[in-house]
Amino acid sequence: MNTGRRKVLKGGGGAAVLGLAMVAGLFRSNGAWADWNKAAFETKSLADAVKAMGGATPVESKDIVITSPDIAENGAVVPFTIASKLPKTESMALLVEKNPSILAANFAIPDGTEPWVNTRVKMGQTSNVIALVKADGKFYYASKEVKVTLGGCGG
Amino acid sequence: MADPMKIRASMAGDKVEVKVLMSHEMETGQRKDSKGATIPAWFIQNVTATHNGKTVLSAEWGPAVSKNPFLSFRFAGGKPGDKVVITWTDSKGDKRTDEATIA
Question: In chain B, what are the domains?
Fold first, then answer.
């Protein structure tokens, strides 16, 4: 009984804190930086992220390559390279399945720019990492598991 | 104002390879300080790279991008001596623009 109540309290408090953080961090950014897809950055699953980007169900593709270490010793800095061989690649996103928000970064690739980006992201724990590519109006993805020995999201 | 970015742009075959190292805390909004209070989120949201006025890459970032973010990409149509300009905007509305000459 008591433990149940504690859990409720804990859960409620955590949600409130998260809500406050959202308001403090993101509300101010409203308006002037409207080209930041807030809805997509709040999603928790691949399907929701794609929906927030205005797409339908993504299709798995072998033409997307994720290059990263298989085991990351430090989750705070995990290097990733994503490359797409799909024709007419318009954008590429990197998603970490078990992070508090799944979407880490989204890159728009204009004509003339190679569908290839390299960046570093934080991973809270061992997780599948997904590269989501929009090509010719459709969404494709590839995923890969990366093991993390020390998380990079908590305090 | 944040510290300058380190930008390196060089020819890689017929393409220009750009490497950028930004200086930013990229606070997630998940961490707590020593008193248990949540440290508010503060991270780079938008990054834009232009070459001769044409956008060659634009990015939207969430707080999951690592502290002091690194970014590398390649684009066609550049030549040595051209300038690559990179701008970021963070969740507090702070902005930073730096440029590099293609070597």
Answer: 6-29+39-101 (2.60.40.10)
Residue of A nearest to B95 (CA): A33
- Cα-to-chain-centroid distance, residue A99: 7
DSSP, residue by residue, chain A: -HHHHHHHHHHHHHHHHHHHHHHHHHGGGTTTTTTS-HHHHT--SHHHHHHHTT----EE-TTEEEE--SEES-TT-EEEEEEE-STTEEEEEEEETTSSSSEEEEEE--TTEEEEEEEEE--SSSEEEEEEEEETTEEEEEEEEEEESS-SS--
What pTM was computed for the model?
0.83
Residue type, A123: M
A112 and B CB contact within 8 Å: yes
What tokens does A50 get?
A: 């794609």
| Partner B contacted by A149 (CB < 8 A) | no
Tens of pLDDT along chain B (103 residues)? 679 999 999 999 999 999 999 999 999 999 998 999 999 999 999 999 999 999 999 999 999 999 999 999 999 999 999 999 999 999 999 999 999 999 9
